[in-house]
Amino acid sequence: MTSAISDNTLRGISRTFLAVSFTVISLAAFGGGFGVLANNPLLLKIHPYLFFVGFGNLAILLFNRYLTAAIYPELRIDPVRQRMFIGLVVLALVMVTIAVAADLPLLKAAAGLMLMGVVAVPLYEILTTLSVAKIWKEVSVRYYIFDVVFLLNANLGLFTLGLKEAFPDNGIIPFFVTQSAYFLGSSFPLSISVMGFLYAYAWRRTDRMELAKKLFSLWFYIFVGGVLYFLIVILMGDYLGMMLISHLLTFGVMALLYTFGVFLRNWFRDNFAHPALAFMLGGLAFLFATSAFGILNIYYAKGILFGSYPPIRGDKMWIYHSHTHSALLGWITLSFIGMIYIVLPAIQKAGDLELLHSGDPLEQLLDVRTMNRAFVQLSIILVAGVVLIGSFFSGQQLVLGMSGVVYAVAALMLLRNLIHDPVFDAGDKP
Prior knowledge:
By secondary structure, the protein is mainly α. It has a single domain, classed as Cytochrome C Oxidase, Chain A (Up-down Bundle), CATH 1.20.210. It contains 15 helices and no strands. The protein has helices at 7-37, 41-71, 79-102, 105-129, 132-137, 139-166, 179-201, 209-236, 239-270, 275-300, 317-350, 354-357, 368-394, 397-419, 422-427. Helix 7 (179-201) runs antiparallel to helix 8, helix 7 packs across helix 11 and helix 9 packs antiparallel against helix 10 (275-300). It is globular, with a radius of gyration of 21 Å.
């Protein structure tokens, strides 16, 4: 496959993405855990910004581009630009951290504006390189392209949020621009990425490939359209509409969870226990929990105007926190760990995207010891995640904080586990 990058450059960039992104995730989890243990409002306030500003942008700007370029090689990867993206995202992370710590909302707005400019670059390149017909031809590419569009909108939310906090009496910015709205909008592109990946590397491999294509094409319209419709009915305060669309999405998630479980059982029986697939099954299980908590959240938020604080009855805030953390620490992080355990070893082995494009990235690329450690990592993350969510209900602050810290340590295990795998070492050799 034609590529504009050298083997070593792509390997190096993907390693940098791995190191920076999971350092950010761990810092966010440490911030939440220590924030609870030390009762530190600053850490509690800043830790979701770390996740969304840092990992949210890095995942779509770099990792999502690998997935898209693996399907359409004409979307060439520029190593200089990718390094620049990493640097600018880290700069935005520093800006937002200072903005929150020193109460400088205009600095937050500046970070959002800068990130909008950053995201506009690959979006423009994609839309001028691929025709609409070509985008729609590949189901997974539809998901990947909309990820970038949603990320641009999320950064617009960060920009307007900063302006609203700087000028609270200005009536130009709509009432629905809030921290919750920004975090909600930032989670959508990450979720859509996973859906496209699930189709590309799991369902498309089934014997009923044409049926899978039709169903995932339909799910694209239900999921993306449902999310957009959900935002509208939230703003309208339409309780019945919120309940209908949330239940429809939940039933879709249940179908995904069941069918992926069947796929996983057949895969493990006929091939080997791939930890990436187990991570993604765990992610789907947390997505089901996210959906269920979301429905409860709507039920108890009835009559509360969107944008008000708290967004739910005070005695039911554990539902809101369980909903958000099931999505972030469960669905999104677990799924991306699974995706990384597939994509990065394929890049390290080939030095380019060829294995993702026409090979078999689900073959056994990782050492047995690496895979065993990955399952240990998954077990720790699952236990820490479940305990963390249970702690919101029980109100045990010590357990909540400790589970956050344990989760952060388990997330960092990904770096040590992959970097020391033989396939990564082989990438260093000429």
